[in-house]
Design a protein that fits this description.
Elements (H helix, E strand, L loop, with lengths): L9 E4 L2 E4 L10 H5 L2 E3 L2 E6 L4 E5 L1 H12 L10 H14 L6 E9 L12 E9 L10 E9 L16 H13 L4 E5 L5 E4 L3 E6 L2 E4 L10 H12 L4 E4 L6 H4 L2 E6 L3 E8 L2 E2 L7 H14 L10 E3 L14
Parallel strand pairs: 8-9, 8-15, 12-13
Antiparallel strand pairs: 1-2, 1-7, 3-6, 4-5, 4-6, 5-17, 6-7, 9-10, 11-12, 11-14, 14-15, 15-16
Helix pairs in contact: 2-3
The structure holds pyridoxal-5'-phosphate.
């Protein structure tokens, strides 16, 4: 559980840098009633040795966010470069020197009753200090829940649509109450989709396997990073294909990926050991590689990172607090 955020933390709201305590919306806001917002999540890692903070793939996250806002016809009137500049500026203004999480949120902002959306949109960017989301050092116990993953024909899972996260909240609540660390959701067809807030990977017969985008998953950026690391650093074959529930019980290794969970090993599923019941070698290697890459310690993957405290030219967006 993360600590409450200090109300003096500077956020970007209404085209200005303001303290969190002053960033307020009306109780009648459309998105609050109808879930008509789209968010994203970006990690920043502080590295003591390099005395710098690295944002992980900020432009890719902002590109996904803007594209997916289009599904809900919410317009974000800034480029991915401008959004990244705002994020760098927020980290600098708050003088953060710790791991953190960036939360961009765009939403239908009309203040009235009635679900039919109009063209009034707003967006905000928040940056908060953030440690580990799940303690996965010893490996997690995951459970398949009774809730099914939302279908693309109802609410597209590939976008981080606010209202869609009721599905994740119901799933993780059920999993926690039943003694599991995290929920795994099946599609209506009974295939494995993903966890409540992360993508899933299996290792079986030397291959890395993950459900494809058409299985109602969020197209995770960590998922993409891990697939690249597996192919290029470990020379592993990566297969995107449907996964049956029972394959969870016969695979050799399992892990979740996500901005929040990073690479989180799963050592038990539905009260059965995954493989040997210990964190597997492929999972351990990928977790190590991802951590090193995200902290700016692997030259080959530095292109994923935006250093915050290295001089960045021409800050132009927004006004001073
Ligand atoms: C439902 C869901 N799946 C997967 C992910 C992982 O996506 P990413 O790696 O882009 O954070 C997230 C987290 O953001 C999520 O909410």
């Amino acid at each position: 559980m993360q600590a409450e955020v200090n109300q003096n933390v500077v956020v970007y709201f209404d085209n200005q840098y303001v303290p969190l305590g002053e960033a307020r919306v009306s109780i009648l806001t459309h998105a609050l009633h109808y879930g008509t917002g789209v968010f994203d999540g970006i990690r920043g890692y502080w590295d003591d040795k390099q005395h710098d903070l690295f944002l992980v793939r900020p432009q890719d996250h902002y590109q996904r966010w803007k594209t997916n806002c289009g599904i809900l016809r919410v317009d974000v009137p800034l480029t991915t470069e401008e959004l990244t500049e705002i994020t760098v500026e927020l980290v600098r203004r708050n003088r953060f020197q710790s791991n953190l999480y960036v939360r961009p949120l765009a939403y239908k902002s009309a203040e009235r009753i009635g679900v039919i959306p109009d063209d009034r949109n707003a967006f905000a960017v928040m940056v908060v200090p953030f440690g580990d989301y799940l303690d996965s050092r010893k490996g997690l116990h995951a459970g398949v829940v009774s809730w099914r993953r939302i279908e693309d024909t109802a609410i597209p899972a590939r976008a981080k649509i606010c209202g869609a996260y009721v599905n994740s909240a119901l799933a993780s609540d059920e999993a926690r109450r039943n003694g599991f660390d995290e929920a795994i959701l099946l599609t209506e067809a009974g295939h494995v989709a993903e966890a409540a807030s992360s993508n899933i990977f299996l290792v079986r017969r030397g291959k890395l396997i993950t459900p494809p985008a058409s299985e109602n998953i969020l197209e995770g950026i960590t998922r993409d990073s891990v697939m690249e690391l597996a192919r290029k650093e470990l020379r592993l074959e990566v297969v995107e294909r449907p996964v049956d529930r029972s394959e969870l019980y016969v695979c050799d290794e399992m892990f979740f990926t996500g901005t929040m969970v990073e690479v989180a090993p799963v050592v038990r599923v539905d009260h059965r050991p995954v493989g040997s019941g210990q964190i597997g070698p492929v999972t351990a290697e990928l977790r190590h590689l991802y951590t090193q890459a995200a902290h700016g310690r692997l030259e080959a993957w530095r292109q994923w990172l935006m250093p915050v405290y290295e001089p960045v030219a021409n800050f132009s967006v927004g006004s001073a607090v």
